[in-house]
Specification:
The structure is a single chain. The chain is mostly helical and 100 residues long. It is elongated. The protein is built from three helices and no strands. The protein starts with a helix and ends in a 13-residue tail after the last helix. Helix 1 packs antiparallel against helix 2.
Length: 100
Amino acid sequence: MVPTTQVLALAALLFCIGLAGVIVRRNLLIVMMSVELMLNGANLALVAFARARGDLEGQALAFLIVALAAAEAAVGLAIVVSVFRSRRTVYADEVNLLRR
């Protein structure tokens, strides 16, 4: 059995990698994947806390976050495809639709 502290360390590492990806990268697809990493880190922490406490609330919340991540991926990918069709780029710096 893996100790809870190691699972939380892995969750924090996943969240930090995702956060760095959101801050550093400008490609919208990479930013979306980084957000997914952050959500997976949060899910892992919730499941670890739920296992440590011996209840199911954290796992139920993790299931809700998985559904939220799926919806976010669908809507985000639709927006990225729409932006790519109109601008021929997926880089956030080159998309200035709201600046006009």
